[in-house]
User: Which sequence fits this backbone?
């Protein structure tokens, strides 16, 4: 059930109004379902605010997010809320003209673009989908990520999803949710189902 | 990272194709964020499949879901995916003509309508948002819910959200995810933020 009363009022010299527009960094991690799905659900709220949304999918296969992608593209084009830009690593990133050598190079290119967009305040709401993995694999330095997020201008909200979120990131994040797998149909031998898994 | 290979193949006499259209019952529970948000994210996939979607909000205040509601209404009206019907207990349910005495009565009315819709196969994808609470409070009998879900016709997927999901329900569900609160801005004294919390 929603609740609106904080347990304590911080001694940070900010007004409630100022605190309401502070940029949020959220991390959805853990082995359970719903990490990306909840991030795209949050994007619906951002869209409803009329905010420009940037999605960066740090995954090779895009099949699993096609429902969310189509829905957000239709919303972004509806003219009734914010715009939506959807960038897919698996398709070589839209801003990169040449082929890329490796997933590592592609992930790094993705992060460079996120940095440029944060500096330019291109979007108001970012989904960095499965971005924990390039950090987990050591391709992108988590301390640099935290430093860039910490210094980002304006009120840009960032949601990062994926397993194995590193401690410097979860320490820095305002909102961390761990999705725990309690039970999954694949445990019972079912394959992924249309409309559910993608 | 997505994966498509089940650990074992069930000895249920069904083909993979049959198993792919089995109705899924999913429960998002636990104290963390993202239970409803992930359910609405799943609804994007259902919408993308062209499925009729029915949302039943078993909550009094609708403020917190207005972004998702507007987004799903726009999607439902876009003609590019499935339709969306959004029913709110806080506004007295659309199909009820008279005033209701209490939240308990309203919750029971909601469940009666869900039963009628399941029997009629009105929707292909149901979000029963915060439906765990009427069960938790003893207003709706969890054994009856399980029995109705078990016997529902066709391939109707049902997602139930909320804390305190009862064991007969999680035992029956195919997919159970527990959202664990690791860190939340309200712990640091921040109030709910526009575009993030609603």
Assistant:
């Amino acid at each position: 059930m929603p609740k609106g009363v904080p347990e304590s009022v911080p001694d940070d010299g900010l007004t409630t109004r100022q605190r309401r527009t502070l940029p949020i960094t959220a991390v959805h991690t853990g082995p359970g379902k719903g990490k990306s799905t909840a991030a795209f659900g949050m994007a619906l709220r951002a869209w409803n605010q009329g905010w420009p949304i940037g999605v960066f999918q740090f995954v090779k296969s895009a099949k699993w997010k096609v429902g969310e992608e189509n829905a957000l593209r239709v919303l972004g084009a509806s003219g009734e809320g914010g715009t939506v830009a959807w960038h897919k690593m698996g398709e070589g990133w839209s801003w990169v003209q040449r082929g890329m050598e490796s997933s590592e190079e592609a992930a790094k290119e993705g992060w460079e673009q996120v940095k440029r967009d944060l500096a330019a305040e291109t979007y108001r709401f970012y989904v960095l989908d499965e971005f924990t993995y390039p950090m987990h694999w050591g391709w992108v330095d988590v301390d640099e990520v935290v430093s860039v997020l910490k210094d980002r201008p304006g009120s840009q909200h960032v949601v990062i999803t994926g397993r194995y979120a590193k401690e410097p990131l979860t320490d820095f994040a305002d909102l961390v949710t761990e999705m725990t797998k309690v039970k999954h149909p694949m445990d019972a031998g079912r394959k992924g189902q249309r409309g559910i898994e993608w």
Residues 54 and 85 of chain B are 5 Å apart (CA to CA). Chain B touches chain A through 82 residues (CB under 8 Å).
